């Protein structure tokens, strides 16, 4: 009996194993559940902390980007704190990005009007990027002439289109300074602009011929002006000549149409408000398809531009009749400076592409708005015709020397630029490279700055009866007078910007537009497409502010053929 008990002593512990094992499993499960619960609580606490921080940042004037700058900077711990810049809070995280869609210049002007003190300087948040906007002439000049704002904010479309190596978008530094030097001393030097006067006149005559060919029918002004601008810029930049009145069957028509298509696509991409510019983490997802469209466009641009560069390398300087040298185009000039300025072929291609892109757009947009105003205001048109008849004479052609004696025409273009600035927010924005002060407010490094030229043009504190289209305001005795320049010296009228980042081609643009407008007005009377039909003056904002509906007119010759 004893031996039986002794031999089975080990059975009892074995019977306890399931119970112990069950307890261990329950303990492990409880521990895992506790850990999971802890993680959930931590996640909830983290979300609550993030939400609280976001709301704290958002509560600051100007929205989350300005709140973050304030609460994470040393000034948050000092007393008294600097006075904040007034501005809308927008939404948490994204701030006021919604204000930048559609007609942003109009929306921003309305927001500034609702916010006390915001017309001089308004703060807003573009996602995590702090921004300031001014609609006051003095503050505009202060920003544009401040060396701290000589940089450009990040623009993913500009990188995708090579524009980060161009004059307009290049980062401030030695490379940009070299490009600026080349532009002022060579590309847009007065002697270079003057050298192309004969070709300007020739393109103007081609436009006149094309309009006469319409025979009094309806003319799409935008199509004619963009084609003329492209042909002129192509000669100025690439040395290639086209006939404005080319029929669709001409051999160069396919190349022209492709180039116009490329310019239009690039124009659309650069003018698109891209969220990747403010949230770089989105760039890999490309939610708006901007990156994909840039990648599709650039091989076509490269083939075209590099092909022309190779053509220029393979030939000597073109000589005209009887040994007279023709003016050098941009490609000739840039290739001659390539070694001394350290320019790669890609750099030259970027500069050339920018010139085609911006030159085609700027002149055509300004002229279309001006023509629309002349159709809308026949009294103004009659004054232009009267001046041309007195100075030039009905039996003579307009010359560029005669244009200097046409003060009413020059006042007309100033008034058109005042009321319809092609870049109502100056198209390309500025970025503060270091902390600086604007209108007495501290503006931190990395802030995007914009000038609302459109809002200034409609401010009765800046212009008397601002909604009236009245060129006389720029004549002797007018509120502004003839001394007001559009080239950046007067903060009320800065369509081409001012300071280090002003448009380098502004003299070329104004010389060309003035000469062509004089020629077209001298040759034709401009009338609505349908008698008594209103002119649609509504806007659409892309890279420039265009007429939403392309202008269509009828023209009546004023002089014999």
UniProtKB/TrEMBL annotation:
<keyword id="KW-0472">Membrane</keyword>
<dbReference type="GO" id="GO:0005506">
    <property type="term" value="F:iron ion binding"/>
</dbReference>
<dbReference type="GO" id="GO:0020037">
    <property type="term" value="F:heme binding"/>
</dbReference>
<keyword id="KW-0812">Transmembrane</keyword>
<keyword id="KW-0408">Iron</keyword>
<protein>
    <recommendedName>
        <fullName>Cytochrome P450</fullName>
    </recommendedName>
</protein>
<dbReference type="InterPro" id="IPR002401">
    <property type="entry name" value="Cyt_P450_E_grp-I"/>
</dbReference>
<keyword id="KW-0349">Heme</keyword>
<feature type="binding site" description="axial binding residue">
    <location>
        <position position="503"/>
    </location>
    <ligand>
        <name>heme</name>
    </ligand>
</feature>
<dbReference type="GO" id="GO:0004497">
    <property type="term" value="F:monooxygenase activity"/>
</dbReference>
<keyword id="KW-0479">Metal-binding</keyword>
<dbReference type="GO" id="GO:0016705">
    <property type="term" value="F:oxidoreductase activity, acting on paired donors, with incorporation or reduction of molecular oxygen"/>
</dbReference>
<comment type="similarity">
    <text>Belongs to the cytochrome P450 family.</text>
</comment>
<dbReference type="InterPro" id="IPR001128">
    <property type="entry name" value="Cyt_P450"/>
</dbReference>
<keyword id="KW-0560">Oxidoreductase</keyword>
<keyword id="KW-1133">Transmembrane helix</keyword>
<dbReference type="InterPro" id="IPR017972">
    <property type="entry name" value="Cyt_P450_CS"/>
</dbReference>
<dbReference type="GO" id="GO:0048731">
    <property type="term" value="P:system development"/>
</dbReference>
<dbReference type="Pfam" id="PF00067">
    <property type="entry name" value="p450"/>
</dbReference>
<keyword id="KW-0503">Monooxygenase</keyword>
<dbReference type="InterPro" id="IPR051996">
    <property type="entry name" value="Cytochrome_P450_78A"/>
</dbReference>
<feature type="transmembrane region" description="Helical">
    <location>
        <begin position="32"/>
        <end position="52"/>
    </location>
</feature>
<dbReference type="InterPro" id="IPR036396">
    <property type="entry name" value="Cyt_P450_sf"/>
</dbReference>
